[in-house]
Design brief:
Layout lengths: L2 H8 L11 E5 L2 E4 L4 E4 L2 H4 L8 H13 L10 H14 L3 E5 L2 H20 L5 E5 L8 H6 L16 E4 L4 H7 L4 E6 L2 E2 L5 E2 L2 H14 L2 E5 L14 H4 L5 E4 L10 E5 L20 H14 L4 H16 L5 E7 L2 E6 L4 H10 L2 E2 L1 E3 L2 E4 L7 H15 L1
Parallel strand pairs: 3-15, 5-6, 5-7, 7-10, 10-11
Antiparallel strand pairs: 1-2, 2-3, 4-12, 8-9, 11-12, 13-14, 14-17, 16-17
Length: about 375
C-alpha cells in the first residue's frame, strides 16, 4: 500500500489534497517521495517563513528537544521567558498569551475583549464587529467571527455576538457601532478572503472610533504578521497600533504556535483560571520562534522583503493572462483574465511549482528568504502556464 492510500484509509478527508507526497525540504525547495523537486511559492500557507530547514532554526529546535520538550504551564521555562521578552519588546506590546494556532490566538483576543468590557461596563457589552470577507479560524467561535456566509453552515448553532460589516465602508461600520459593542476586529490584508488590502483611511477611522468609545481594536495578523508584508506587523503600513494583535503562521517557522499580544490597558484582563492552553508556549515552538524573530528583526531583512515584493509585483503585471495583482509585501493575489486559479495551481505541480489559491485568485506566499533567482524561476513557470 502506498503513502496516499495508507493516508486516505486512516485520515479524515477534511482537505482537498493534491496527489503529492512531500518528503523533505531545503531552503525554498521541497522534494517529493519520488525525488521530484518543487520550488515553493506557498511556504506551508505562509508558515515556513525562513523556508525549509533553515540551519539555525533546525539547530535551535533540535537542541531544545534534547533539553526539555514540554512542561505544563504550572512551571516556568527559560526559553519561553526569552521568546516572550523578544516578542513584546520588538512589537511594543505589554504582554503575550501563547497558544497553538491562529484560531486559538483569535479566541484569546475575543475573550480579552469581552472580559475587558464586562469588567468595566457589565455583561451586555459583548458584540464584536468583524468585516465581510474576513477569515478568523475554524473553531465554532472564530467561524462565527468570520464574515463569509459560506463558512456558516452545518455546525449550528453558531456563537452569537458577532456583526459583519463591509470592508472600507466607514459609514456602514458607524451604523452598527452601538452601546453593545466591545471590539472591532480586522485583517489589514484579508488573506483567505482574496488577498484584499484595507484602505488606510478606513483603518485609521476604525482606530479613531475605538479610541472615542473605549472599544478594543483587534488586529488579526495571523497571516500578515512577522515580516510577511515587509514590516514586522502590517499595522505599521497603516500608522495604527491595535489594542490586541494576534499572530501564528510564520511566527515559529513551521512549529505550531499562536500568540495574542495586548497593550497595557487590557493585558491583565485574563486572570488565573479564565484562560489556558496545555501546549501554549511549548519550548520547541519558542525555540523556533526565537530564531525567526532574530532573523526577521535583523538589520536590512525587512527592507529586502519589500524589495522582493516590488520585484514580484512588477514582473507579474507584465505577464499575459494576468488581469490585476493585489496584496502587500510577499502576500500576493493574482486575478487572471481567462484561466481558473485552481486549474493553474494544479498544472503548476507538473512543472515543479507550489502555488495557492484565495477565492478566484492565484495566491503567492513565498518564504521571506526567497532569492531573486528563485523568484524568476517560479514566475517563469507561471508565465508559461498562463500563456
Amino acid at each position: 500500500m502506498n503513502t496516499i492510500e495508507k493516508f486516505n484509509n486512516n485520515v479524515m478527508h477534511t482537505y482537498g489534497r493534491y496527489d503529492l507526497v512531500l518528503d523533505k525540504g531545503n531552503g525554498r525547495d521541497a522534494t517529493a517521495e519520488d525525488n521530484k523537486q518543487y520550488i515553493d511559492f506557498g511556504s506551508g500557507i505562509g508558515t515556513n517563513s525562513l523556508g525549509y530547514c533553515d540551519s539555525d532554526w533546525v539547530e535551535a529546535v533540535c537542541n531544545q528537544a534534547k533539553s526539555i520538550q514540554h512542561t505544563s504551564n504550572y512551571y516556568y521555562t527559560k526559553i519561553q521567558a526569552e521568546f516572550s521578552e523578544k516578542l513584546c519588546q520588538s512589537t511594543g506590546y505589554d504582554k503575550v498569551f501563547f497558544g497553538n494556532s491562529g484560531a486559538e490566538a483569535n479566541e484569546c483576543a475575543i475573550k480579552i475583549a469581552r472580559k475587558y468590557s464586562f469588567d468595566k461596563y457589565g455583561e451586555n457589552r459583548n458584540t464584536i464587529i468583524t468585516l465581510v470577507n474576513s477569515f478568523h479560524g475554524r473553531t465554532l467561535c472564530t467561524l462565527s467571527a468570520t464574515g463569509q456566509d459560506s463558512f456558516h453552515q452545518y455546525f449550528f448553532p453558531f456563537v452569537g455576538g458577532f456583526v459583519h460589516t463591509p470592508a472600507n465602508d466607514i459609514e456602514a461600520l458607524k451604523s452598527v457601532v452601538d452601546d453593545s459593542v466591545c471590539a472591532i476586529m480586522v485583517e489589514f490584508v484579508q488573506g483567505e478572503g482574496g488577498v484584499v488590502k484595507l484602505d488606510e483611511e478606513f483603518v485609521k477611522a476604525v482606530r479613531s472610533i475605538c479610541d472615542e468609545k473605549d472599544i478594543l481594536m483587534i488586529a488579526d495578523e495571523v497571516q500578515t504578521g512577522i515580516g510577511r508584508t515587509g514590516k514586522l506587523l502590517a499595522a505599521e503600513h497603516f500608522g495604527v497600533k491595535a489594542d490586541i494583535t494576534t499572530l501564528a503562521k510564520g511566527l515559529a517557522g513551521g512549529v505550531p504556535i499562536g500568540a495574542c499580544l495586548a497593550v497595557e490597558k487590557c493585558s491583565s484582563v485574563l486572570t488565573p483560571g479564565t484562560h489556558g492552553s496545555t501546549f501554549g508556549g511549548n519550548p520547541l515552538a519558542c525555540a523556533g520562534g526565537n530564531v525567526v524573530m532574530t532573523k526577521v528583526c535583523a538589520e536590512g531583512f525587512l527592507d529586502e522583503v519589500s524589495k522582493k515584493s516590488e520585484y514580484i509585483f512588477s514582473k507579474l503585471k507584465n505577464i499575459k493572462g494576468v488581469e490585476s495583482v493585489s496584496g502587500l509585501g510577499l502576500m500576493i493575489g493574482i486575478t487572471l483574465t481567462e484561466k481558473k486559479a485552481a486549474d493553474v495551481v494544479k498544472a503548476a505541480l507538473d512543472k515543479g511549482l507550489l502555488l495557492l489559491t484565495a477565492k478566484e485568485k492565484v495566491r503567492l506566499l513565498p518564504p521571506l528568504t526567497i532569492t531573486y533567482e528563485e523568484i524568476d524561476k517560479g514566475i517563469g513557470i507561471l508565465s508559461e502556464l498562463l500563456a
